[in-house]
Fold each of these.
Amino acid sequence: MKRLNSAKLRKAGWRSGSVKEFLGLSDEEEALIEMRLSLSRALRERRIEGGISQTDLAARMGSSQSRIAKMEAADPTVSLDLLIRSLLTLGASIKDIARAIAR
Amino acid sequence: MKRLNSAKLRKAGWRSGSVKEFLGLSDEEEALIEMRLSLSRALRERRIEGGISQTDLAARMGSSQSRIAKMEAADPTVSLDLLIRSLLTLGASIKDIARAIAR
DNA sequence: GCATGATATGTCATCCCTGGCATAAAAAAA
DNA sequence: TTTTTTTATGCCAGGGATGACATATCATGC
């Protein structure tokens, strides 16, 4: 079984490398976490590169600063939909998003 | 401006090829619709290829037959999260999903 | 014809995600 | 330092997505 490295798990809020097995996380749940992590990284990269603050981005897409922060923290309460919409707002193309997901 | 072809728009519930402009759909909204369409097509392909009924798939992922049908119809009320979860349930990898999104 | 299975479509109560807000902490600028 | 900006984190009411259900349509076989 493929495993997330410890950095990824820490980012996602897990405490150790085997929490997935301990909690009985399925491969699908693991994949969803990986995708959220990849998209949140892409979001932060794009935003920083554009010199845009979380507050600015929130205004552009009708969201809130706190939600942007949670997106970039890969908070479990943020949907893939919202992450993808934020990337689109930052000018990402569908191909960009596809690339980000698989990275 | 890139335009959805009429088949795609009909699938998404639009009546004519220029509804996007008429309704003032943004490029981001258009991209989201395209992605939902791509994922719903991938879902149907995978499910049919696996010889699995909508009812079976619904049971596997704790959803309902009606929701699967709506997913495959790219109904506006289905989230990308649910589409992606369904593909993962059918054994799709993250790369498979990335490919499906950009197709 | 009828029966059976699969899919489409509509409605609805429930629950999860959302934006908004407050506040704290960190970083940057002054 | 102090001030300002940016980011992090917690909470909550409201709204949208969800599963469940009913029902209709469609296809296939008998």
Amino acid sequence: MRVRVEVAVFTVRRGVLEVLLGRRGGGTWSLAATGPDGAGGLDAAATRAVEDMAGIRSITTEQLYTFDRAGEEVAVAYLALIDAGRHPISPGQDVAEVRWFAHDDLPSLEEGQPAVVAYGLQRLRAKTSYAPVAVNLLPDLFTLGEMQAVYEVLLGRGLDARNFRRDVLRAGVVEESGEVRAEGRGRPARLYRSAGGHFAVDARERRVARAISSGDDPPA
Amino acid sequence: MRVRVEVAVFTVRRGVLEVLLGRRGGGTWSLAATGPDGAGGLDAAATRAVEDMAGIRSITTEQLYTFDRAGEEVAVAYLALIDAGRHPISPGQDVAEVRWFAHDDLPSLEEGQPAVVAYGLQRLRAKTSYAPVAVNLLPDLFTLGEMQAVYEVLLGRGLDARNFRRDVLRAGVVEESGEVRAEGRGRPARLYRSAGGHFAVDARERRVARAISSGDDPPA
DNA sequence: GCAAAAGTGTTCTTTGTACACCCATGG
DNA sequence: CCATGGGTGTACAAAGAACACTTTTGC
């Protein structure tokens, strides 16, 4: 039985959630994919698939689910989040074109891959509620307004700026850089960076992170 | 690359969380395992593995994680929950012995399988907080006292009976059967059955289920 | 001076948690 | 009659959600 690794790479640009796809000459659009052969196992294969397709290095991935494809192949699906601005893409060997596509306007994909994208999106949205996923989608330094905008795109709804500030700062997921940026008109915003630590680290250690109920159910 | 399917089957008996293991003549103890060949793909292979090892049919499984084993094999791990009382076990073809082991007193297992058990347990405990996992570990009809005891074993701590009753009944995960059972001394308890539906179905549809933060992180 | 975005606290509602007593049966 | 487990409601604490105004800049 053949084993494949496929990676759904997401970014948020200009308020739109996008997916990274590549295409061989004249072929169908596809997620970054490869066989798990070579050093390092599945996780390494996922990283390598993205690097080989789009020239993007040092991304973090997370295993999503393993699909079977008509009993002949298993596809181990991964999720990756990056800031498109910091990672310019360029087609790798054998790749005619790589592009970001809005997640709700994807071209026809290879067999089985729509399910990977759909499940990746579901997991991404679920994680939004309890993990600081946005820091993976933002530059090194970012304003809380930018961070909030990312969350709003992922969640598909507006958030209250005051509550957002309070919760993010209290959770300790970001730290002030001391710098400030004037983005045009309006008062300049303080710039923050990721504080590295994950959520659910409040003082009482009793706090529990949350997930949308469907978050880790298997995909349909 | 070789593909294997391995299933960590859990039950709760007499207040102890147990794992189902089998052993070929003279061999090492092992989880139910098989190749994914044959009809029906990975999920069917998981069900078949348990049936072939222990003669247990019609269990529900859930995919956990896919491990790579030294770059030579990938193991797709599954979680299954059953009521040991309703499913007597008997060794299948080529199986010398099948047994339930207390989860904290396992024998030496095949390579890589301790990680499967550990991750299955982590996921099981995480799901406990937001899904009615206990109904899969109980007979058709059960008392709320029995159900609470299962949760206490999974969570490793005592629960307040009043709050437990209120929350379970409000969540609508069980329904009264109308029957009553005298279990010895003490007032007879009402018998309930699973109401089928899943959690997080409260009236306002605003309710969000919860998960321990580490619940769907990859295993170490 | 006005449009635009950043920044700051408080109130209310909901959820979770702690807690004490009576009820029905077996021995 | 008493030991054992079943069944019921209320008070307090914590978390989440809603909400208005002042500050700083570009134009």
